[in-house]
Amino acid sequence: MLLLTPPLAWFVVIYLASLATLLVTAFWTIDPFTTRIVQVWTTLNFERILEEPAYRAIISRTVVMAALVTLTDALLAFPFAYYMARVASRRVQTLLFAAVLLPLWASYLARVYAWILILNHNGVLNWSLTSIGLPAPDIGYTNTAMWVVFSYIWLPFMIIPVYAALERVPDSMLEAASDLGARRWRAIRDVVLPLSLPGVVAGSIFTFSLTLGDYITPILVGGAGSSFIGNVIYSNVGIANNIPFAAALAIIPVAIMAVYLLIAQRLGAFEAL
Amino acid sequence: MEGFWTRLLLRVWAALILFFLFTPIVLIFLYAFNTSNIQSWPIPGLTLKWFSSTWSDPDVTSALGLSLQAGLIATALALVLGSCAAFAIHRMTWFGKETVSLLFVLPLALPGIVTGISLQAFFSFGGIPLSTYTIVVGHTTFCIVVVYNNVLARLRRTQGSLIEAAMDLGANGFRVFRDITLPLISTSVVAGAMLAFALSFDEVIVTTFTAGAQNTLPLWIFGAIRLGQRLPEVNVVVSFVILITIIPVLIAARLTGGGATRVPVAATEPPTTTSTAPAP
């Protein structure tokens, strides 16, 4: 108990107190003239977020992008994880595992920056495609660029739980399926997919949550119409200095994640980890 | 049970994914040697000149200094607090265990911007000016869980019989800790510290809200990319940051047989798994 006191105190005194401050601040406002914080309980910030179409558009853009990135990563990761878990030899398996982990730990900013170099007008992608006679896609600084970069950055977070889930599918189940006359694709659809679903959902928690809270990638690779919830929070803290409004905005991704996690729990994602 | 064509297709898919994962990283290192100060492809030639100009840029070196300082202090604090927590939780049979574990993983599970803005609001209401120490506080908060998970996982695998045997042979509590427990867990503590440092050294979101006017290395990189300035130096710095974060992770993986660097700490799941992933 004595040992638990310092770390627990750290979390309660600093972290929980901070979260509580955030929650309380969300219900305050600032005086538009002095930009001082007015400590009067009000739900004005939340009303403003829900009523103004601009904020609603930003929230739906963020959520749609998070969903799109999650879907893309699931589609990219599944065959790869399947190969890792059920086809590759033990040695290749270990190597691939390391190969997935390395980019995961390699600097986030570095990886985003690499994609600026690839996607910009004079970048690697346009050059490679035009030199084999294809039209240049020229997707630098667009929402498409954001989609590619997010899918890239979070892909390892999807591969690893899906791999872990696939590795646990017992061979005997597949043998049973084939004994009962199921063809290969049938066995994959009716046995492997349902058993690996919790892994996919577990991975989706990362891909969805990390996209939802990001603001760096939209700033660096997005274009004019690429603002995320995080960007509005960021500009309200910095330029507008409206911390109460930023706090209210910050509650939104937390609330969305709470709902998401509830659904994930229903789908058995937590047992899969 | 997979037929020849399925295996071939899967193999091709795996190769394409690996190409997708590694091309950007290889490109970064190539661009660091780019002779031109315009970042276009193909690069006209290779040079080492940007390495010396980056190293003599006072903005870069002072940002590096701050990153190292904050990273080392945060790692040290996380080491002590995370190990304490792991020992306490390991011994406990108390029902609140899961709640405490969840609390520790919260700074990584919640979006970084939430942790960042919470801390900033907290400091501003507490009248605490933003400084190196507020950066350290932010980093320590999300690094604790990494040490905690690693040490706890090792303690769970350690056999209680060894400790009982030492006690039967007359060792007191301190002696048992020094001669039995510490050697058994030491590599997991070091691995946890390595990961904590890697996590801290690369962190940008929480740092943005707790650094005030100072720049850590990731903040310098972010600012430079955003303004499109000094990109040749960015190439060099970014390559350096990749190496600095990858090397401790490789050491940690070796020390724990690969376990430490695995991802799955789900958002709410009590972290029984060995480790965690960086949450930028």
Structure, explained:
The complex is a heterodimer of chains A (273) and B (280). Chain A is mainly alpha-helical. Chain A has helices at residues 5-25, 44-51, 53-87, 90-105, 108-119, 124-131, 143-167, 171-179, 184-212, 216-221, 229-238, 243-266; strands spanning 29-30, 37-38. Chain A has a two-stranded antiparallel ribbon with strand order 1-2. The two termini of chain A are 29 Å apart. Chain B is mostly helical. Chain B contains eleven helices and no strands. Chain B has helices spanning 4-31, 49-55, 58-91, 97-109, 112-125, 132-157, 160-168, 173-202, 205-210, 217-227, 231-255. Mean pLDDT of chain B is 85; it is low at 263-280.
The whole-number mean of residue pLDDT values of chain B reads 85
Number of helices of chain B: 11
Percent helix of chain B: over 70%
Compute the number of strand runs of chain B.
0
Broad structural category of chain B: mainly alpha
How do the strands line up in the largest sheet of chain A?
A: 1-2
Count interface residues per chain for the largest interface.
A-B, 96 and 95 residues
Radius of gyration of chain A: 23 Å
Report the β-strand fraction of chain A as a percent range.
under 5%
The shape of chain B is globular
Report the radius of gyration of chain B as a whole number of Å. 22 Å
Question: What is the total tally of β strands of chain A?
Answer: 2
Largest sheet of chain B: none
Distance between the termini of chain A: 29 Å
Number of helices of chain A: 12
Task: Name the poorly predicted regions of chain B.
Answer: 263-280
Largest sheet descriptor of chain A: 2 strands, antiparallel
